[in-house]
Amino acid sequence: MADLPIQLREAFEAFWKAVPKRPADRPGKARDEFGRLVKRGVDPQALVRAAGRYAADVRARSVDPQYIPLVGRWLREGGHEAFPDPVPAEEPAELTVDTSVTQAPVHTALVVAGMTDADHRSWIARCQLDVDRDRSALLVRAPSRFIADTIKERFVPVLKRAFSVREVQFISPRGGP
């Protein structure tokens, strides 16, 4: 069992503190495997972070300590690779929508505002939409009370964004607005 270089001792101590272990586990073989992995190019801080994610997983699943592998074996068999650093989230790309002549401007406005194509086809495409003259309200003429009620419940915020209106009014058969 060789000692770790001085620059790795602090990282190994943080790793040993973070990693879940069996009650009888000792640091000797784990220290050797830790040093071997770092020598192969694995970032020691990535091993510390993987140990923390592994510990969180063991706690979340309430794993009995007798079923936790010895730390040296966990490292040797690549257990740390199952708990990699998360990939940083990319900035969302600017939303682009096909605005070719084959696509209706109302559909485009709704998709840009956040409506799915399926929701548009299922609910909105069945209605007549009219914006009033001062652009303060959108009038939705629905073919049934059910469709009007569903659009009220699910899509009013999207309709307001798409048409830049303050309110949405509904007209449906049998009973009016």
UniProtKB/TrEMBL annotation:
Q: Which intervals hold domain DnaA N-terminal?
A: 119-164
Q: Name one Pfam family in it.
A: DnaA_N
Its protein name is: DnaA N-terminal domain-containing protein
